[in-house]
């Protein structure tokens, strides 16, 4: 199984929204990423629209549809407004994230055991519309089986603590937690994604340790490197880092 890269374009939208101008252009840069071999695009619309706007969501749906076999992933907190947005745009994957409305960025995952009553009907509702459902979880080996019991198709491990670690001992500790959770996903029979603060430097070890890793969703790292290398070249470099090129 080869891990694939989904490019999160929130950072592009955040930069665009600093001015009352239509650039940088989400569709144009999304097209560059897809042409460079990204498996798809990811967006995380938030209620305040500080980056992805609701009006962006259908435009990117049309763009992804131009590339057969590519996927559209919409992630976010599953309140009714979010659920109606994804039902209107029918992404290939919906990633449920426990963000508070004003949260700067995702910083924790669901506890699928304590939140089963909330999540079970939401997962069923989305799957009934033909969407694959992933649940964003902390690196905790108890979570994959619990997510599977909810009916989810995948988990996405929150890799922020691993990506942020600097001291070798901290890196090893956080790496071990992610790997243990990924292996628990394989044992539970649920597919595996990962995301947050992943870079070309820290991806190869993760991919090597988790051959069941299906997809990484990356925005900040991709667009940070794109300042230096250009977006198309950066997408290819990230694909090389995960063994997809």
Describe the structure.
By secondary structure, the protein is of the alpha/beta class. It has a single domain, classed as TIM Barrel. It has 11 helices and 8 strands. Strands 1-2-3-4-5-6-7-8 form an 8-stranded parallel barrel, surrounded by 7 helices. Helix 9 links the parallel strand 7 and strand 8. Helix 2 runs parallel beside helix 3. The longest helix has 21 residues. The radius of gyration is 17 Å and the shape is globular. It starts with a strand and ends with a helix. The mean pLDDT is 96.
How many helices in DSSP terms?
11
What is the helical fraction, as a range of percent? Answer: 40-55%
In CATH, the homologous superfamily goes by the name Aldolase class I
What is the CATH top level name? Alpha Beta
Assembly state (oligomeric): single chain
What does this entry show, briefly?
The protein is of the alpha/beta class and 245 residues long.
What topology does this entry show?
Blueprint: E1 4-8, H1 10-16, H2 26-35, E2 40-43, H3 56-65, E3 71-76, H4 80-89, E4 93-96, H5 116-128, E5 132-137, H6 143-150, E6 154-158, H7 160-164, H8 168-188, E7 191-195, H9 203-209, E8 213-218, H10 220-229, H11 231-241
Parallel strand pairs: 1-2, 1-8, 2-3, 3-4, 4-5, 5-6, 6-7, 7-8
Helix pairs in contact: 2-3, 6-8, 10-11
């Amino acid at each position: 199984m080869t891990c694939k890269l989904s490019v999160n374009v929130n950072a592009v939208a955040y930069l665009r929204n600093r001015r009352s101008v239509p650039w940088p252009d989400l569709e144009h840069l999304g097209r560059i990423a897809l042409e460079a071999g990204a498996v798809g695009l990811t967006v995380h619309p938030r209620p305040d629209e500080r980056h992805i706007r609701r009006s962006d969501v259908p435009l990117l749906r049309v763009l992804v549809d131009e590339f057969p076999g590519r996927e559209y992933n919409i992630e976010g907190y599953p309140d009714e407004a979010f659920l109606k947005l994804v039902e209107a745009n029918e992404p290939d994957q919906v990633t449920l994230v426990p963000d508070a409305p004003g949260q700067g960025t995702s910083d924790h995952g669901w506890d699928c055991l304590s939140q089963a009553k909330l999540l079970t009907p939401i997962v069923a509702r989305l799957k009934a519309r033909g969407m694959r459902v992933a649940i964003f979880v902390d690196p905790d080996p108890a979570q994959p089986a619990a997510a599977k019991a909810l009916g989810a198709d995948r988990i996405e491990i929150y890799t922020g603590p691993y990506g942020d670690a600097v001291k070798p001992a901290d890196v090893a500790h956080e790496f071990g937690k992610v790997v243990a959770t990924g292996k628990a996903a394989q044992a539970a029979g649920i597919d595996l994604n990962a995301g947050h603060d992943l870079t070309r430097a820290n991806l190869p070890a993760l991919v090597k340790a988790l051959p069941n890793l299906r997809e990484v969703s990356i925005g900040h790292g991709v667009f940070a490197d794109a300042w230096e290398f250009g977006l198309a070249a950066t997408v290819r470099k990230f694909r090389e880092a995960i063994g997809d090129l």
